[in-house]
Amino acid sequence: MMETNESRLIHFPITLFAMVMGLTGLAIALEKVHHLFGGSPSFFRSILVISTLLFSVLIGLYSLKWWRYPQAVAADFFHPIRMHFFPTVSISLLLLSIAYYSYLPALAVPLWCIGTGLHVSLTFYIFSYWITHNFEIQHANPAWFIPIVGNVIIPIVGVDIIGNTAALFFFVAGMFFWVILFAIVLYRIIFHHQLAEKFIPTLFILIAPPAVGFISYVRITLNLDLIAHMLLFIAYFFTILLFIMVRHFWRLKFFVSWWAFTFPLDAITIASFVAYQITREPVYAVIGFILLIITSVVIGIVLLATLQQVRQRTICVSEG
Predict the structure, then answer these.
(1) Can you tell me the distance from the alpha carbon of 156 to that of 167, in angstroms, rounded to the nearest whole number?
(2) Which residues have CB under 8 Å from 303's CB, separation 6+?
(3) Rounded-to-integer distance, Cα 55 and Cα 51, Å
């Protein structure tokens, strides 16, 4: 049994940290509902505690993998596709800092500092790696947006910690490279071979940059101007597009990448409630609650599928 557990540890995937992103994003969305419409805070805080414990378990297991199998971690870190999932660790820390910020800032600020430092390091590493190594167009996929999304998340709490100017730096850098990478990824999707089945769920990541960008922009400017509306409506466009394509997702075999469905849905849900908070237009509240229901159902389905795969011991296996 020990040998089996050891062999499974070497295949422990970095992509599992997307679970923390999905669950923490849901907790933030429910916290937003609590602040806007009232109700008990126990539900979102329970999910937040679960997310925190899950992050602790995952970081412990991946650290153990790093200690026992450093060559396996290095293989992930220098892999042209898997390397883009390492920022899910720093983004998880940033999301936890957002979730704790309103009622436990003494914990939120250190989480933000660690998450920001780690994410900035990973961002510059990945960008320099892109520049100094050869990539094939088939390597491009929506997961490339993950480092970008993290930079746009930094200002949400960072605007209060480091001020508007520094927060704006991260926002502008994230949005600038989102536009460039979006053109590359769209070109790859349309004019080259279809994404591998396990990466099809990452199409939902297309929603995240404009949705998170909207939230971040509003936090920096405290204004719902033309740029804010552009970001929100672009996010709505991709949300509608992917819902229209839903039949393509129902047929997919389960992979850990299914968690890519979750955080982008969290982000557009939160963005809708932020829009309602500023404008008090009921349409945004209605959209927000519809998306919250859909997001909760999707997370429930993906969580159950993940737990089933854990019981069947088919998660931490060789990708062949």
Answers:
(1) 8
(2) 19
(3) 6
Per-residue exposure over 46-78, b if at least 16 CB sit within 10 Å of its own CB, e if not: ebbeebbebbeebeeebeebeeebeeebeebbe
Secondary structure class of 119 (helix, strand, coil): helix
Query: Using CA atoms, how far apart are residues 255 and 249, in angstroms rounded to an integer?
Result: 12
Please state, in angstroms and rounded to a whole number, the distance separating the CA atoms of residues 311 and 314: 8
Which one, of 194, 143, 196, 110, lies nearest residue 18 by Cα? 143
Nearest to 163 by CA among 81, 102, 219, 103: 219
Q: What is the CATH number of the domain that holds 246?
A: 1.50.10.150
Q: Is the pTM of this model over 0.90?
A: yes
Tally of structural domains, the chain: 1
Instruction: Please report which confidence band the pLDDT of residue 3 belongs to, taking 50, 70 and 90 as the band edges.
Output: very low
213-255 pLDDT per residue, tens: 999 999 999 999 999 999 999 999 999 999 998 888 877 787 8
In a domain, 318, yes or no: no
Q: Cα–Cα distance between 21 and 186 in angstroms, integer? A: 24
Average pLDDT over residues 118-125: 95
Euclidean distance between CA atoms 210 and 231, whole angstroms: 5
317 domain-assigned: no
Residue 268 in any domain: the answer is yes
* Per-residue tokens: 253: 């075999």
Please state the rounded mean pLDDT for residues 296-313: 90
Does 316 reside within a domain? no
User: Token pair 């910690």 is at which residue?
Assistant: 161
Range of the domain at 256: 2-311
Query: Nearest to residue 170, comparing CAs of 151, 157, 194, 198?
Result: 151
Do residues 151 and 121 touch, judged by C-beta distance below 8 A? no
Average pLDDT over residues 248-270: 87
